[in-house]
Amino acid sequence: MSCEKCGKCCMQSGKSTHRTEEEKKNLTKRLNIIEGQVRGINQMIADDRYCDDVLIQIAAACKSLQTLGNSILESHLKTCVAYEIQMGNLDILDDVVTIIKKMQ
């Protein structure tokens, strides 16, 4: 079966996820922002910034990572998991439960 996104790749070829260039661009942009947040926290530590300020920035970076993870999970459910269920692989649901537990 061909990928719904590009019509070329085959999702059965192993555990990989095809992402469109637009999806990769958006994910990379979000990751770059998170990377900047972490560098900022590092600089705050170097500058002896007040603990409250550092903790607030850490919380913001954590929330950004959580939001990104939720976005990837949503995509995973709509594509990879839906495909596996259509192919009759209900064991994928156990995998999803494990992933969600690890994300908490």
Tell me about this structure:
It is a single chain. The model is unreliable at 6-13 (pLDDT under 50). The protein has 3 helices and no strands. The chain is mainly α and 104 residues long. α1 packs antiparallel against α2 (51-86) and α2 (51-86) runs antiparallel to α3. The two termini are 33 Å apart. The protein has one domain (21-103): Methane Monooxygenase Hydroxylase, Chain G, domain 1 (Up-down Bundle), CATH 1.20.58.
List the SSEs and their pairings:
Blueprint: H1 21-46, H2 51-86, H3 92-103
Helix pairs in contact: 1-2, 2-3
Number of folding domains? 1
Helix content: over 70%
Major sheet = none
Strand content: under 5%
The CATH class name reads Mainly Alpha
> How many E-type strands?
0
Radius of gyration: 18 Å
Integer average pLDDT: 90
Comma- or semicolon-separated keywords:
mainly alpha, 3 helices
Outline of this structure?
With 104 residues, the chain is mainly alpha-helical.
